[in-house]
Structures are given as structure tokens and as C-alpha cells.
Amino acid sequence: MRDFNYSKIKEQSWDSDILGLIAAIYKEAGKQELYLKQRPEELEKLVEIAKVQSTEASNAIEGIVTTGTRMRQLVEEKTTPRNRDEQEIAGYRDVLNIIHESFDAIPLSQNYILQLHKIMYSHMNNPMAGRTKNTQNYITAKYPDGHVETLFTPPAPFETPEALDKICEKFNRVIGNMEVEPLIAIPIFIHDFLCIHPFNDGNGRMSRLLTTLLLYRNGFYVGKYISLEAKIAKNKDLYYESLNRSQDGWHEGKEDSLPFIKYLLGTILAAYRDFEDRFSIVEEKLPAIDMVRKATQNKIGKFTKQDIRELCPSLSISSIEGALRKMVAAGELMRSGVGKSTFYVRVK
């Protein structure tokens, strides 16, 4: 088995891109702290939106889906799962809620990771819930012509518990001793977790939940207000590409983790900047139509009612719909499509 020595991270030289991303994230995190003190009640509505988006996006990456209405009802716990997909969605919701509410009481250890995995499958009968894999798994790519290629072979099942213990122990040591910058250590831990691929199923979703947990435990709370999972889902190809590029040589400890570190840090920074954009709209006490108008000015190309709702969390859906109708009537916006396919484009 390969060695995991996170103390070596401090000996590495990081390029200007990595250092720039870290500096920008710290700056945005500082600003977010000030924003939260100014408008905590209204910004709390962003939490509700982010929970729905995170649960929907992280499951959708794995092909687990339901309707938008059912998704909101499941996340808000206003209904019970009807099928296997909805059982998996409900499980993800439960783990995300636990992380939101109790992140500071969840230390990073194999035992706690297994507990979270078990909760993720608590709405269904999965004999491997909360247990590491019992069969060899592979990271594969399926091509349009139908052929499947093995991109990476994770450690064998018998090696997995020890590997999971080691990455938790090494991460906790360097973070506890303040040896390594958390924004470097977190992507490296998540990358190692994905390479170990410790479960028969649910590795991707667990990695995203652990990303949120580790960010919260190190003082980076952007995922509470802006869905990191939704950002990953929008750039899914880049996510897989950076992961694949960083896996070469992993078993020998010769991998280049830079592509994955840059990808994850870029995603975190983009989320912080989205938060700032949304706060700039919330902070002014404007009439509904002016708030919606300001929100539409941030949009290039097509956008939907849901896009505006994310930017205007203090407004009800009916207020947003009313403002959009007025702007269409005034010739400021053009509306196209019907039902769920409805979108808007700025005219002037």
C-alpha cells in the first residue's frame, strides 16, 4: 500500500495560481463574515435554496433524479420517498442536515465516515450501508460507441479500511498541528478518498459531503449558502477531467494533485463570489420589481424564474412572477417557452 504523508505538503512549492486562489478565498470568507452579521435573517433563506440544490445536484451527477417539486418536498421533509431514487435523495438530505447542524461535533475518522454512509442509505435496504467495499471496484469511462475503459483501479477491499484510517489520521495531524494550509489539505484528502473509493456505492456523494464537512470544520461556510454540488454538476466534465489527471501514479505516490486542487479551489472561490453577488441584491431595501430588475442585470443570455429566486431569496415566488410579468409587458424582457421550459432574455 502507498504511504500517506501529509506533512510533505508543507515542503512543496505551490504555483501562483494556487496561491492566488487561496488568497482570494480568504478575502471572500472575511467579507462573508461581515455580510452575515448585517443581514442574517434574509440570508438564512439562501440556506433553504442551497440545501435543495446540493441534494439535487450531487445525486443527479450519479444519475439519481426526481421531479423539481418532489425534490423540494423531500428536502423540506414534507413527503416520504416513493422509489429507490427518492430513498437515496432522502438519505443524502439527512446527512447534509447533520453536517449543517453538527459539523463541529463530527471529527474526521473512519468510524464517523461509515456512520454517515450508513445514514445515507437509511431509507433503503442496503446490506453494505456503513461498511467498506467487499468487492474490487474500478473507475471507468463509457464512450459513445458503447465500449467501457478502466481509467483507475482503487486499492483492493482488504486494503481499504487501513487506507481510510491512514488518510484521516494524517489529515487530522497536519491540521491539528497547523502544519499545512487547510485549503491545500482538504482537496488532497478528498482526492485520496476518491482514489481509495472505499464503498461499493456512494463514493462520489460521500466525497462531496466530506468536502462540505471539512470546509465547515476549517471555517469556510460558503457551502451553506451557495451549493458547491450545483457548481460541480454544471462543470461535471472538468471535475472528472481534473480527477483523472490527478490519479496517474497515485499508487506509487507520484501523482500530480495540482489539477484537482485547482479545480476544487476554483469551485469554492466561484461559490464565494456568487454569495457576494446575491448579498449585493439583498442588502438594499428595494421594491420587488427593482430587486428583480437588478437581479436580471447580472444575467447574460437565458435565465429562468428559479435563477432569479436564487438571487432574491427574500422575495416570494408570486412577487418574482409578478415582477417578471411587468418587465415582459414593459419590453424589458422577452419570455419564451412554456411550463418548465420557460426562460427569459433581457431586451434592454
Q: How are the SSEs placed, and which strands pair?
A:
Elements: H1 16-38, H2 40-61, H3 68-75, H4 84-102, H5 110-120, E1 139-142, E2 148-152, H6 160-176, H7 182-196, H8 203-217, H9 228-234, H10 236-247, H11 258-282, H12 288-296, H13 305-311, H14 317-329, E3 333-336, E4 343-346
Antiparallel strand pairs: 1-2, 3-4
* Fold-level CATH name of the largest domain: Fic-like fold
The CATH architecture of the largest domain comes to Orthogonal Bundle
Order of helices and strands: HHHHHEEHHHHHHHHHEE
Q: Give the number of domains.
A: 2
Number of helices: 14
Helical/strand content category = mainly alpha
Helix coverage percent of residues?
55-70%
What labels describe this entry?
single chain; 348 residues; mainly alpha; Fic-like fold; Arc Repressor Mutant, subunit A; 2 domains; two-stranded antiparallel sheet; 5% strand
Write a concise synopsis of the structure shown.
This protein is mostly helical and 348 residues long. The protein is built from 14 helices and 4 strands. Strand 1 and strand 2 (148-152) form a beta hairpin.
Description:
The protein has 348 residues and is mainly alpha-helical. The protein folds into 2 domains: 6-281, Fido-like domain (Fic-like fold), CATH 1.10.3290.10; 288-346, Orthogonal Bundle (Arc Repressor Mutant, subunit A). The protein contains 14 helices and 4 strands. It has helices at 16-38, 40-61, 68-75, 84-102, 110-120, 160-176, 182-196, 203-217, 228-234, 236-247, 258-282, 288-296, 305-311, 317-329, and strands at residues 139-142, 148-152, 333-336, 343-346. The strands form 2 sheets. A two-stranded antiparallel ribbon has the order 1-2. β1 (139-142) and β2 (148-152) form a beta hairpin. The longest helix is centred in the last third of the chain and has 25 residues, at 258-282. The mean pLDDT is 93.
